[in-house]
Amino acid sequence: ASDVYKRQLLTPYVGDWFYKGLQVTPIMMSVRLIFSSFFFLDFFRSCTQGAVRGLNQQRFGSMVQLVCNYFFGLPLSYYLGIVLGMGVKGLLIGLLSSFTALFVIYPVSYTHLTLPTIYSVQISVVAVSLKKKTRHSR
């Protein structure tokens, strides 16, 4: 019973050990526009990753994620947030830039992934229809 009492007593104050609420609110208000753009880009990223998995191109999708997030977004976040001293805004802009790179790369590469599949299906349909026509013409 005493553990439950201690948890209920300490729960409202545990957060104050790590931050002060008055310090966090202005920071969050200054980056709310950056956060709002994450919703659209994350939705797009999730949908395109599902499409890439559906095309059985998981290796390609993971390589694009690796390049955009770890070779582009993470170093840019570090540079903007820590080296240039932009703080949280710089870190979020770097992460947002990796999502934006995915937003640009996936549609361009999507056509290269789907065109061979579409053409092979169309070619097989044409081949089947030609076989049927040649059988009927004999």
Secondary structure elements and their pairing?
Blueprint: H1 2-18, H2 21-30, H3 32-54, H4 58-83, H5 88-137
Word description of this protein:
- By secondary structure, the protein is an all-alpha fold.
- It has five helices and no strands.
- The protein has helices at 2-18, 21-30, 32-54, 58-83, 88-137.
- Helix 4 packs antiparallel against helix 5.
- The longest helix is centred in the last third of the chain and has 50 residues, at 88-137.
Short description:
This protein has 138 residues and is an all-alpha fold. Helix content is 91%, strand content 0%.
Shape from CA axes?
elongated
Structural class: mainly alpha
Low-confidence stretches: none
User: Which band does the percent of strand residues land in?
Assistant: under 5%
Calculate Rg over CA atoms.
Answer: 26 Å
Tell me which oligomeric state these chains represent.
single chain
For the termini, the CA-CA separation is: 92 Å
Order of helices and strands: HHHHH
The largest sheet, given as strand count, sense and whether it forms a barrel, is: none
Number of helices: 5
Helix content: over 70%
Determine the mean pLDDT: 76
Keywords:
138 residues, mainly alpha, 5 helices, elongated
